[in-house]
Amino acid sequence: MAASSDLPTGLQLTELDPGFRADPHPLLKRLRAEAPMHWDPVFGAYFMTRYNDIRAVVTDRGLLRDSDKAEEGAHFAKLLQTRPPGSPQDDNSRFILFMDDPDHTRVRTPLAKALYARVAKARGEVEAVVDRVLDRLDRKSEFDAISEIAVPVPVLVIARLLGVDEAREEEFRAWSEGLILSLHPMRTPEQTEAWGQATSAVNDYFAAEIAERRRAPRDDLISDILAAQERGTELTDEEIRGHCVGFLVAGNMTTSDLIGNGILALLQHPSELAKLRAKPELIGKAVEEILRYEPPVGQTARIADREMSAGGCPVHKGQMMITSIPAANRDPAAYSDPDCFDITRETQPHVSFGGGQHICIGAPLARLEAQVTLTKLLQRYPNLKLVQDDIRWKNTPFFHGLEELRVRA
Predict the structure, then answer these.
(1) What is residue 2's predicted lDDT score, i.e. its pLDDT?
(2) Which of 1, 5, 342, 396 is 20 to 30 A from 93 (CA-CA)?
(3) Pairwise CA distance, residues 338 & 72, whole Å
């Protein structure tokens, strides 16, 4: 479909736009109806909004993720810069999210095996972290659920799994916030400097941790990955360090947003909250519905590796396709009454974790953290209420989460 001059484009389709940030769905509904697969001249890419089209793209194992492989005019690719200006162009430090085969499979396979083995036995550790975080709130009758719960839980959980010092929680949080500036296209010079400082600090930290584990292995994820390397897996030290950083950053922000969005959705829908209180075993379905209803990631992209068709349009090799996750997750062709929040919904999978070979490697851990946190929060506070009238979403592009969420115990 051709571009239309009156369609929203570029950053109007991100959380940097106040209207989109407050409620993206009227605009996305219009695009689904009028231009579900259209060329965005600002992004220099196709923008997609229908579930079936998006599902087909994110599960296509041939499509590419390395933004360097996009055509020259794919301006969206330039927003995905992952290295601070002036840093070495070291491909070994790139996160698997932006790798293609054969490197993607070579690196992801041992990392996923080690991470999933840790997650499979991590429930007790996650419960201990959540209890510790909630214990801090015992004397507070009102608090911000984002800064007090949603933010610290993922930081402390990944710290435990990696085996790093939980006493450095505030540093990890600051590093996460600095590193995520890599995806902010409207950075100030000060923010770019903060990004560079955070990158340098966290890389130095994990380089030291890796050296220490090689000298004296422990029962943690870093040691597990190093053991895989010693067994012959072709992972470089730079790749291990880069993915320790990636686990810290990618898991923290998106999981924090998932937990915060979940608290809000449940408190805004008392009937669904009552269902969950009556049947705590619904927590798995509840988290999936939260992911569908308020996904923490707004967009993901793929690059055509060939001449192809998508959404009924010809796509040339090197062209980029941006898929709108909230648009897909509320497509009435895929979900009945899609704007209704229903934790008992029987439905097909959402696309909040992407799909195919690039499906989010941290999805099992994010699900576990959200399930444990929401369950324990509701058990600890049977009368939890929302006391904030103005819901303020963060203006971080491509991510969807809350600035603050004031609640009363």
Answers:
(1) 47
(2) 396
(3) 37
Q: 309 has which bridge partners?
A: 314
Residue 3 in any domain: the answer is no
Residue 172 lies in a domain: yes
> CA-to-CA distance for 339 and 331, rounded, in angstroms?
9
Query: Whole-angstrom Cα distance, residue 309 to residue 73?
Result: 19
Q: What pLDDT does 22 receive?
A: 94
Instruction: Quote the CA–CA distance of 379 and 392 in Å, as a whole number.
Output: 26
Q: pLDDT digit string (tens) for 286-340?
A: 999 999 999 999 999 999 999 999 999 999 999 999 999 999 999 999 999 999 9
Mean pLDDT to the nearest integer, 350-379: 96
Burial class (CB in 10 A: 0-12, 13-18, 19+), 364: middle
Amino acid, res. 289: E
Q: How many domains does one find in the chain?
A: 1
- Sort strands 142-144 and 45-48 into parallel, antiparallel or unpaired: unpaired
123-165 pLDDT tens trace: 999 999 999 999 999 778 999 999 999 999 998 999 899 998 8
- Is the distance from CB of 259 to CB of 150 less than 8 angstroms? yes
Q: What are the tens digits of pLDDT across the range 155-181?
A: 899 989 999 887 887 887 788 778 877
Neighbour-count burial of 113, counting CB atoms closer than 10 A to its CB (0-12 exposed, 13-18 middle, 19+ buried): middle
Q: How far apart are CA 166 and CA 129, in angstroms?
A: 10
**Can you tell me the distance from the alpha carbon of 357 to that of 97, in angstroms, rounded to the nearest whole number?**
10
Q: Domain residues for 284?
A: 10-408
Query: Which percentage of the chain shows pLDDT scores above 90?
Result: 73
Q: What is the CATH number of the domain that holds 205?
A: 1.10.630.10
Is 39 inside a domain boundary? yes
Q: Within 13 Å and on the Cβ side, how many CA atoms surround 109?
A: 13
Q: Would 2 be classed as within a structural domain?
A: no
